[in-house]
Design a protein that fits this description.
alpha+beta, five-stranded antiparallel β-sheet, about 30% helix, about 20% strand
Length: about 325
């Protein structure tokens, strides 16, 4: 780990000023940043500890939604009564991630900014990584890419997005609220994470000096029929090979509205409007679930080492839809 300046601002104004300095990195729980600093993948000039800021509450909003502070710990959010009752798939996703020790430290804001687990990105000795060194190449393209993405990829990067929480929040139409030098702005989570294109080093829409203050979830009609299903190599402390967050609004046997988001297969949390379109207005049955799964992965671009993910993601989505609707085969 290289030398850096440690700052712990006492208020938001000081934090915004410190975050605006070139080379600054924000510290919440530290479960990602500190890890990458130890690996010499990130070497910020200053680390701005924002844990003294008043972003640690979960509150109801008018209309039945919820406001989640950026410093809320993942474990606290997972077990919060309002989340378990109104957004159970978010609780399921949080509890599927990492380990209890890490969930006790990790924050909502940090999870939104979580960086890929691509082994080439995390190895500072690998020169060809466009996320670390733009225009240097992508070692994963012809290397070991079993864990890598099949949706949203480019010839510059096929790194998969690692978060479970973000997949659930994508299905729940979350909005991310940020504050920075130019004031406040709201970013729908579907627009927050960027596709790699030819600049995979630009991972989110967060600008220099901006801080995530909170996330809002609108009232959801999906609480009774929603699930998060994660498939991984072992039962705990493992990242997804494929995951699905789904919510269904049912009128009898007919699907009135649907939300589908996939994890473990995309370069960002993957909202599948194609799958949603294949479900709405149709019967809640396995035939239509399979059609939706086919639609969700129709644009997949796989490589020899991760081609299995296409079928795995389809089956994961079908299973999530079966569990959400209560109509298992």
């Amino acid at each position: 780990m290289r030398p850096f300046q440690y700052l712990r601002p006492a208020d938001e104004r000081a934090a915004l000023a410190a975050a605006s300095v070139e080379g600054a990195a924000l510290l919440g729980g530290g479960t990602c940043l500190v890890d990458l600093m130890k690996l010499d993948v990130m070497a910020p000039a200053s680390v701005v500890d924002v844990t003294a800021l008043p972003y640690g509450a979960v509150e109801d909003t008018p209309g039945g939604g919820v406001r989640i502070g950026a410093l809320v710990r993942n474990s606290d959010l997972a077990y919060h009564a309002a989340i378990r009752e109104r957004y159970p798939l978010l609780s399921e996703a949080l509890l599927a991630g990492a380990s209890p020790q890490l969930r006790n430290m990790a924050t909502v804001g940090g999870n939104l900014m979580q960086r890929t687990r691509c082994s080439y990105f995390r190895d500072a000795g690998v020169g060809a990584c466009n996320k670390r060194h733009p225009s240097s190449g992508c070692a994963a393209l012809e290397g070991h890419h079993r864990m890598h993405a099949v949706l949203g990829t480019s010839l510059s990067c096929i790194a998969v997005h690692p978060s479970d929480m973000c997949v659930a929040m994508t299905a729940l139409d979350a909005v991310i609220h940020v504050r920075g030098p130019s004031g406040e702005r709201d970013i729908p989570i579907v627009d927050f994470h960027r596709l790699p294109g030819d600049r995979p080093d630009l991972e989110t829409e967060l600008g220099r000096g901006e801080i995530i203050t909170h996330v809002t979830l609108p009232a959801s009609p999906f609480a009774a029929h929603s699930r998060y299903v994660k498939v991984r190599d072992r039962a705990s402390y493992a990242f997804a090979l494929a995951s699905a967050a789904v919510g269904l609004e049912l009128a009898g046997d007919t699907i009135r509205s649907a939300r589908v988001a996939l994890g473990g297969v995309g370069t960002k949390p993957w909202r599948s409007r194609e799958a949603e379109g294949a479900l709405v207005g149709r019967a809640a049955d396995v035939t239509n679930y399979r059609a939706a799964a086919q639609a969700a992965l129709a644009g997949a671009v796989s490589r020899p080492g991760n081609a299995f993910k296409v079928t795995l993601a389809q089956r994961t989505l079908v299973r999530a839809l079966e569990l959400a609707s209560g109509r298992s085969t």
